[in-house]
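Translate sequence into structure tokens.
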Amino acid sequence: MPLINSTTLITSLSILHLTIAYYLLTAPAKIAHHNLVILIGASMGLPPPPPSLIPTSTSPALPLAASLLGLLSVSDLAAAALPTEIYAYYFAAQAPVRIFFFFALEGWIYASKPGGALYGVGRGQAVASTGLAFTWGFVELVSWFWVSSPREKMGGGGYGGRDWWVSRSG
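Result follows.
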């Protein structure tokens, strides 16, 4: 039996998304100055966001980002509330896609940091190549690796304790 099963992890991640969406609307600077963001960004050699890029409550993109995080959170919470047979297939399909996306995002952010292979190529790197974006992608990547861990599935935990990769006829 795993320490934390996949359903609990997905629910916790969804609640984290709702919390971040709330802070994006009410106090976005708290997210940029959070200790975890500073620690992970500094350990990866990523620059802190310049004061001009730290989101303020008047930034026009914040309501859109908060809405997207809220939508993602509510849809994952709704899927986690479904019967085990249904949400097992849903999250079994979601996990590899999200892992690939966040792994590619992390690689791009790391390669486009100052001194990286892609530094100075493209637009928007000053916004994306910061500890804030890297920390968000890193937490998501670790969470989805944990959700899709084979040991949990084989040990009877995760996805309702059944072998989700076996077809229904088998």
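Note: Helices lie at 6-26, 28-32, 35-43, 62-80, 84-111, 125-128, 131-147, 150-154.
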